[in-house]
Amino acid sequence: MAGLAESLTPVERWAEDEDAKVGPGTVLRRHKALMALARRLGDRSLAEATVGDIEAWLDTVGARTKEGYAIAVRSFYTWAVVQQEVSPGDDPSRVVRRRVAGVFEPSAELMNGWRASMRHRGLAASTINKRGKELRLLQTWVGPDRSPLDVTADELEKWLDTRLLSSNGRRDAISGVHSLFKWAVRMRMVEHDPTVMIDRPKVVVGMPRPISDQDLALALDRAPAKIRCWLLLAAYAGLRCQEIAGLERADVMEHETPPLLLVRHGKGRKQRIVPLHPEIIEALNRAGLPRSGALFVAGSPVRPRQVSPVTVSHLGNRFLRDEGIGATMHQLRHWFGTHTYRASLDLRMTQELLGHSSPNTTTIYAAWSPGAAVPIVQGLSAGGAL
Fold first, then answer.
1. What pLDDT was estimated at residue 108?
2. Alpha carbons 270 and 358: distance in angstroms, whole number
3. Which residue in 171, 305, 318, 330 is the catalytic one?
4. SS3 sequence, 160-185?
5. Is residue 226 among the annotated active site residues?
6. 333 given a catalytic annotation
7. CB under 8 Å to 229, separation ≥6 — which residues?
8. Could you give the dihedral angle defined by the CA atoms of residues 213, 214, 216 and 220, in that order, rounded to the nearest 10 degrees?
9. pLDDT of residue 124
């Protein structure tokens, strides 16, 4: 398929390069921060931002997110200087180094050893980077002269309380620190894991928010070829943006009976096989199936590279927004889940098709499809009781 270079903004090109270094989850968070800065700048581009703009923007950001925003800004402008999008003298991110001077890095031995352990376990780069951020936050909280491995359970509780996390965010933070101490105990760096004394909140699973049938039909009717492929893969195969970006030609098995799609880059590196909808096959053929390699590429024809998840998410969401559709790419996956369960009433099959590790996550689609309960509830009446 042809490259997407002509469609990409500087931020999207930065995201493509950054994705190869830190993984899609980290890129999406940094991209979100840069979009917040872009909205603040209004009609001006990020290349036109001044030191005063960055300072004023950071003043609007809560303390617990400032480090992440600062890293995003430094990353983008470092790239922009190299790409000659911004001259070194006009780089406004230099102010960030003063504003986050209180951030302390853990020892290289601790960070590198733990990250290597997680890589050996086959964890996704996004998970490793997310947990590494938790370690940096903990190191900053305890200060530069103390190891984060010295903290007690009570101190960990206080650290978590200062961050004002949601239930799911608190649970993720505890899980990350537990992973650190579990590794440290195994390496005989500490004798026990203080996180075992901390209660973990229950996982809060939100309800699905599927795109409406009318909006989906409108989007599929108006989408350009490549974006139409992405929309169909999300709505008719249930793929996440990360999974769409990771597809290769060999994953499209259109000549099998029935045609199948291999999803190799699922969440948590889980693989699954999904039946291939005829409209997806037709759309891929119209867009131009490559003979081999990545299914969707970006960059120049001379040096094409696999498109990143952030590009799929951003360009897909931008198309939907430009068409006046108040939905996101992920809500097309919700549409797939709700319609699959509604047609089959098979929770296990829906779980497998969506690539959920736990059936508990899939039960939200059963709640969305109340089935026989509707006429029963609507028929309730207290009439004649008086």
1. 81
2. 12
3. 330
4. HHHCCCCHHHHHHHHHHHHHHHHHHH
5. no
6. yes
7. 280, 283, 284, 287, 296
8. 130
9. 77
Amino acid found at 161:
D
Q: How far apart are CA 331 and CA 198, in angstroms?
A: 34
Ramachandran sector of residue 381 (left: φ over 0; alpha: ψ -120 to 50; beta: rest): beta
Active site residue 267: yes
Place of tokens 């995201």: 15
**Annotated catalytic residue: which of 240, 265, 314, 334?**
240
Q: Mean pLDDT, consecutive 10-residue segments, the chain of 386 residues?
A: 55 76 72 87 87 82 72 85 80 64 71 92 82 88 88 94 86 94 94 93 81 95 94 94 93 92 82 92 92 84 77 90 93 92 88 84 72 64 58
User: What structural domains and CATH numbers belong to the chain?
Assistant: 5-99 (1.10.150.130), 108-197 (1.10.150.130), 213-368 (1.10.443.10)
Determine contact, residues 333/239, Cβ cutoff 8 Å: yes
Query: In this structure, what token pair is assigned to residue 165?
Result: 């996390």
365 is catalytic: yes
Quick one: tokens of 271? 């693989």
* HSE (side-chain half, CA atoms, 13 Å) at 226: 19
**First vs last Cα of the chain: how many Å apart?**
71
Q: Check whether the bond before 301 is cis (ω within 30° of 0).
A: no
In the block, residue with structure tokens 């209660």: 199
Active-site residue, selected from the candidate residues 99, 333, 334, 339: 333
Pairing of strands 297-298, 305-306: antiparallel
Q: Is there a catalytic annotation at residue 356?
A: yes
Task: Answer yes or no: are the C-beta atoms of 264 and 194 closer than 8 Å.
Answer: no
Q: Is 248 helix (H, G, I), strand (E, B) or coil?
A: strand
Active site residue 21: no
Active-site residue, selected from the candidate residues 74, 267, 277, 305: 267
Say which residue the tokens 């190869």 belong to. 20
Q: What is the distance between the alpha carbons of residues 196 and 208, in angstroms, rounded to a whole number?
A: 32
